[in-house]
Design goal:
Elements: E1 2-8, E2 11-20, H1 28-32, E3 50-52, E4 61-64, E5 67-75, E6 79-84, E7 90-100, E8 106-116, H2 120-148, H3 159-168, E9 173-175, H4 182-185, E10 193-200, H5 209-217, H6 222-235, E11 250-254, E12 257-263, E13 267-276, E14 281-290, H7 293-335
Antiparallel strand pairs: 1-2, 2-8, 3-4, 4-5, 5-6, 6-7, 7-8, 9-10, 10-14, 11-12, 12-13, 13-14
Helix pairs in contact: 2-3, 5-7
Length: 336
Amino acid sequence: MVNSMEVHVALVRNTHERVVSAPPEAWGDLMAALGGDRDRLWPNPEWMPLRLDRPLSVGADGGHGPIRYRVSEYEPGRRVRFEFGQRTGLGGFHEFTVEPRPDGSSMLRHHIEASPRGSTLLMWPLVIRPIHDALIEDLFDNAEHAATGQRPTARRWSPWVRLLRRVARPRARSCPVPEAARLARTAFEKTDHAGAFSVGLRPGISTDPREWADAVFRDPPRWVLSLLLLREALVGLVGIERGGRTAFDTVASRPGEVLLGTDSGHLDFRASVLVEEDSGTVTLSTVVRLNNRRGRLYWAVVRRLHPFVVRAMLRRAADRLAERARTARIGARAQG
């Protein structure tokens, strides 16, 4: 394995290489699936998915995250070159190649040759290069396993890469309660509050709404758990029922959606977790019905914190399920 990098004024060259004990003929189908639904090379769900607007071929357009490019050259099973888009901040290309070796094995190579522009001059050494290096080594791990059935020794991301990933992870966004969230929209005849937040569904991650609901409500961030414990300690002092372990029990479910919640003297609430594979989103919707003055006063306080709490819980759930999928995949490959 070789990882080299040179910088000449405004020209960046970055190369990763790995010898894999598989013949060159093993790479045809694997390379052809790159950027599609059956892609076995790109490391999902750890990284932003690589998506192309058509099967791998000259002219196919796409990218991963903010890095955009199009296929400019393609030799099936041997080489594919991507030209960076104008808005990417890089002028040049990156490419994957497979070279046969005398002993029947293959040399995998990924090479970047590009000129950073504008802010990318600073972003390349500080952010883009370390992220890129970690991603390509994960991709090579996938390639080695896909071609040989053997899992390479697992490597940990550097502390800097882990920090960058944490900072750049997708955020939960506010949105209306989706039309598809039928359990949430029909939970009450009269609703005093309705809101929702959504997060992207990463490839390879669970699409079971029950798993998402468990990840959201059974394993919240520590600061959210502290708030919930404080809430339990204080509400009894003002005559409001404590939630207890049944606060997030399942009350209804249907394909793609699960509804949780409870009824109390001061208010009734429902939380819907909707997984939409077509749009690639997971949406957490909350609907509330206020029953009396205590409920209105309670909600007037809680609603200020509610968006921060829901965003944090949804982001953590996405991270936990992605890590669970990655761990399961590594374990399965190790056994294989």
